[in-house]
C-alpha cells in the first residue's frame, strides 16, 4: 500500500489532522483537514517565501525551472508521470490510454519555447516582469504580478490546473490552489516535480483540497490573496464572486459550449471518412467534459454523404472509439440525464420524422441525435452529440445566437474561401476560437483563453514617464 | 368502451379482487398485447425498441414507457374524449406540457386503490376518523391524489372525517381545534396529506406552540416526499416532528408513493408490519398487480439488491395507457421491498463544459 499526499504545503507548516481515503487497491490518498487558521498560516508563509525567493528570480530563471520540471514529465519512465498515469484513470474514471496520451500531449505545450512564446504573445518584452524597461513611445515600464493568487480549480479535465499554476509562477506570485475532490492529484504531483528542480520555488505554492462551498475557508483564502481565479460552473463562480471584494483582481473561467461546422467540401468522397473519424475523436476525448469539446455540429448537405449519413457514420465511429477507449463510468445523475434526453428524442421521433436517434444499445456509451433542420443544441455530455442539417452553412450560423454567452471553440471544416466570411460571423456571435476538426481539444499555448488575455489580465503596470526621465537628468549633480 | 376494452378492464378487476385464474405474467402479457394493438404511439415506441407481442413472453420484457411519454404522446387505448376521468401531473400551469393519464372507467383505479389502502394503512381497523389536509376531488378533479383522498374518506372514513383544505387554502386554525377535540375525546385520528402540506402546518403549530397528545391508534399519512438530495434527512426530521407535535410514533406514520402515470400505489410497510409482527419494516411495497424493478441507469438492466438504479413499475391497473412505465426516481431493492431515494437531479459537468441541465437552469 503506497500512501500519497493529495495536498502540497510548505515544509514549515504542520497539518493538524490527516485522514485517508482508499482509492483503487494499491494506493491511499492523504487529505489534510483544512481550517481557516491553517489557510491564513499557509498563505502568510508562501507569501513570505515569495518575497524571499521567487520575487528575486528573473522570468528567464523561472521559465528554465518550469521547463526542467516539464522535461521530467516528458520522460515516460519518470516516477511521478507513472503515478499520474496509474492514478488519474482511477480518480476520474477516464480511460487509462486516453489519459496517458492526452497528458503527455498537454505537458508538451509547456516546453521552454512554448513558455517563451506565451510570454511574448502578451508582453512586448517579458523582461518588464523583472525590471523597468524602455518603451518605444518613451519612458519606461515595469509589470507586477499579484503578490499572491488564489486558484479555484474545477473538476476533472486533468491538466488545466497546471496551466494556471504556471501562469502564477511566471507572474512571480505565491500560489494557493484549491483542488476539486474530483481531481486533487495532478497539481500536487506537478508541484512535487518543481520541488525536485528547485525546493525553494515549490515553497511558494500550496495545494489544498476541500469541498467547494465551505465559505469560511474560501473567505480566508480570498482575503489572503491579491487575485482570485475561478474555474467552474456558473454556480461556483457566483458563490466565489460574492466573497471577493471589488478591490481584488477577479478572473473567472465559467462553463462554455463548443460547436462544429462542417461544410460540404469536407464531405467529398476522398475526405468524408477522415472528417467523421476526427470529429468522433473531438467528441470522445475526455468525454466532452472539456469545454473545448463539441456538443453539436451543423453539417452541410450537397456532397458525397448527406448530413443524416454523417450522423450514422459518426455513430459507427463513436461505437468504434468506445470499443477502443471506453467512456468513464458515470454517476446515476449523469446517466439519467442521458437517458432522459434519449427518451425525449425517441418519443419525439414517434411524432416527428425529422428527428432520429443513433445510440449505443446496451448502455449510454454514446448517442447521436440527428435533426433534419438547422440549429445548435446543448448536450448532457459524456459522448452525446447533436447533428443538425444545413442547406447552406452561412445562412444558419445565427442559430447559435441563443448560446452566445457560452460560445467557446468552433471546429471548422470548409473550403478556404469560406473561412473569412464564416470567421467574421462567428467572431461577431462571440465565438472565441476557430480550429480544425480533430484538434478541438488541444488549444495552443498563448491562445486567448475564453477570448481574453492570460497573464495580462492579472498584472498591473508602473510607468515612468518620458518627461520625468528627461527632467531628472537636470538634477544630476554633474549636469552641464 | 369497445367490447375488448370492457373484457380487458374486467379481467384486471377480477385479478385485483383475487378472483382471477391467470397469474401476473399471463395477464401482463395479455394486457401488453391489448395495449400494443390499441395504443398506437405506444406501439410505435415498442417497435423502436424491437419489442412486439411476438417477442414478449415475460412481463419484464415489456418495454417501459418513460414518464415523459405521458407529456409528449397521447397514450390511451380508448378514445381520450370519452374518458371518465383524466389525471394530470402538477408542476406547470400549461396543460400542453402536463402528463396525462386517461381513465375510461374509474372502477379499476378505485379497485386498485381500495384494497391496498385497507391492507397497508388500516390493517387494524375498518374505518377511522380522517382529517384531510390537501385538496379533495371537488377542488381538483384532475388530480389523482385528490381522488385518492376523497376515496379514502368515502370508503374508510367515519362520519366525523373532514377536509380542511378549501379554496382559501389549508385552514390551520380549524385543524388545531379539531385535533384538540379528538384529543379531548380520546378518539384516534388519521391525518392525510401531501408531505409539504405538513411542513406549513408544523411551522404554524410550532409558532403557536401547539402540541397534541393524539390517542393511541392515531396515524399520519403523507405522500409526495421532498425533492432533492436532502430528502432522507428531511423525512427523518419530519417524522421526528410528528412524534413531538402529534405524539405519533414513526411506526404509525406511512408514506404512500403514487404517480399520475400509474393506477396503483405503493406504501411503507410500517403500520402493517408493526400490526402483524411487532417489527417495523420501512421499505415500500405494492399490491400483487404491481411489480417494481430497479434498473441500472446506464444499461437499464435489473440490478442486484442494494444497488441503486432507476425505478420501473409494471402496473396491471394501468390498463388504458401503458402497464410498464420508467420513472425518473432512483431507488434500491431490499429483502422486504424497495427504498426510494428521490428524483434524479440534473447533472453537472465535472469539467469546464456546460451540460444541458445547467444551461436550462441558467436560462430559467
Task: Describe the protein.
- The complex is a heterodimer of chains A (480) and B (364).
- Chain A is of the alpha/beta class and 480 residues long.
- Chain A folds into two domains: 2-255, Aldehyde Dehydrogenase, Chain A, domain 1; 257-436, Aldehyde Dehydrogenase, Chain A, domain 2, CATH 3.40.309.10.
- Chain A is built from 16 helices and 18 strands.
- Chain A has helices at residues 36-52, 59-73, 79-92, 96-108, 112-122, 160-170, 186-197, 199-202, 215-223, 234-243, 272-284, 307-324, 332-351, 393-396, 419-429, 466-474, and strands at 2-5, 18-23, 27-32, 133-134, 140-144, 148-152, 174-179, 205-209, 227-231, 249-253, 257-262, 294-300, 355-359, 367-371, 384-390, 407-413, 433-436, 460-464.
- In chain A, the strands form four sheets. Chain A has a seven-stranded mixed beta sheet, sandwiched between helices. In chain A, strands 8-7-6-9-10 form a five-stranded parallel beta sheet, with helices on both faces. Chain A has a three-stranded mixed beta sheet with strand order 1-3-2.
- In chain A, helix 11 (272-284) links the parallel strand 11 and strand 12 (294-300).
- In chain A, helix 3 (79-92) packs antiparallel against helix 7 (186-197).
- Chain A is globular, with a radius of gyration of 25 Å.
- The N and C termini of chain A lie far apart (77 Å).
- Chain B folds into two domains: 3-91, no CATH class; 108-288, Rossmann fold (3-Layer(aba) Sandwich), CATH 3.40.50.
- Chain B is built from eleven helices and 16 strands.
- Chain B has helices at 3-16, 24-38, 40-48, 69-72, 107-121, 144-156, 172-185, 195-207, 231-246, 270-277, 356-363; strands at 65-66, 85-88, 100-103, 129-132, 162-163, 165-166, 169-170, 189-194, 219-223, 253-257, 266-268, 284-285, 290-295, 308-315, 324-333, 338-343.
- In chain B, helix 1 packs antiparallel against helix 2 (24-38), helix 1 packs parallel to helix 5 and helix 5 (107-121) packs across helix 6.
- Chains A and B meet through helix 13 of A and helix 3, strand 14, strand 15 and helix 11 of B.
